[in-house]
Amino acid sequence: MNIYPTEANTFLYALVVWVIPGGIYSMKEVWVEKYRPKALSDIVGQADIVERFNAYVATRNLPHLLFAGPPGTGKTTSAIVLARELFGENWQGNFHELNASDERGIKVVRTKIKDYARTAPLGGSGFKIIFLDEADALTTDAQAALRRTMEKFTKTCRFILSCNYSSKIMEPIQSRCAIFRFRPLKDAEVLSYLDKIAKAEGKSLTKEGAKAIFHISQGDLRKATNILQVAAFLSDEITADTLYKVSSTARPENVTSLLETAIKGNFNDARKLLDDMLIEYGLSGEDIIAQIHRSIVKLTIDDEIKVKLIDRIGEIEFRMVEGSNERIQLEALLAFFVLAGKDIA
Ligand SMILES: Nc1ncnc2c1ncn2[C@@H]1O[C@H](COP(=O)(O)OP(=O)(O)O)[C@@H](O)[C@H]1O
Ligand SMILES: [Mg+2]
User: Fold this and answer.
1) What is the pTM of this model?
2) β pairing state of 128-133 and 157-163
3) Phi, psi (degrees; rounded to nearest 5) at 63
4) Superfamily designation of domain 46-181
5) Positions of the chain with pLDDT lower than 70, given as ranges
6) Is the CA virtual torsion 304, 310, 314, 320 positive or negative?
7) 155 CB neighbour count, 10 Å cutoff
8) Which fold has domain 252-344?
9) Which of 41, 49, 175, 279 shows the greatest Cβ crowding within 10 Å of its Cβ?
10) Pocket lined around ligand 1, Cβ cut-off 6 Å
11) For ligand 1, atom 9, which residue shows the shortest CA distance?
């Protein structure tokens, strides 16, 4: 199972941004596009990666590349920025983007990718770039075909493959690529990026607001930028309160208090807190489970109990994913916490 929030999660925020009343917001006004770096020097964090990119640009050449890492950490941005730096103004003529999860079959590799790969690069460039996003969605057969295409057109074509997990890409492809591992961005890096956006848009992000964004986005800059934009639409000063609401995330202190109440044995109070969270933040059962899981690590309780609780959380989460009643499962989890609390006392 994918431990990273999927890019589909963040789709929700983008949707909210696009359907802002009046439809005045075109694609350009979506901040993740508007503020996407155009040069290597604009990329935040990923310092070792940027350093290696600079070396490629200096030699005006590339090997095939494989980008691995969680969403919103700069993989697509890096591919585009590399093309811009290598090909200049007309970079788009030598850059072709495909999403492997839309077109995952072997046919796409045999037709689309091959057709593009065999045409000559434009503007005196020695090669062109094919950027294959979500390459880990390619079937084994498609990966085998891709590998042959990579070999065949290596003189005129460089592949940049992007994925969440490099282990899902077959070894013969991996060994033909220089591998880059993108990391979730650090709080300070997220802040430096968002501060610039807020300033440019005439908005201000409070200190608590920044902390809320770190908590919600977990180093995913796409998510961070999207919730900033949605919150900024509501007020010029962007506060923690607004951010938690627009992102459907419960405050971590509320989740902690829910768990502590249950462990202290107050089942009814805990149940009420759970109700408040479900209603006020509009959270789904799976959202709440994920947040409980994150909070539990910070609780000051015996490790042995913690392990039991985490084990149970895993089981409840699995049942929810399988489609069982979320409400009943969440209450069962609270009941388990109450019983575990009795063991401590
Ligand atoms: N390291 C980074 N530096 C600057 N902006 C970034 C970085 N990572 C992500 N972003 C921003 O977040 C958004 C999504 O980035 P993207 O490169 O598409 O992520 P992914 O890793 O999922 O391909 C873009 O608006 C981009 O500007
Ligand atoms: Mg991407």
Assistant:
1) 0.83
2) parallel
3) -85, 180
4) P-loop containing nucleotide triphosphate hydrolases (3.40.50.300)
5) 1-28, 103-105, 345
6) positive
7) 8
8) Zinc Finger, Delta Prime; domain 3 (1.20.272)
9) 49
10) 32, 35-37, 43-46, 71-77, 193, 221-222, 225
11) 74
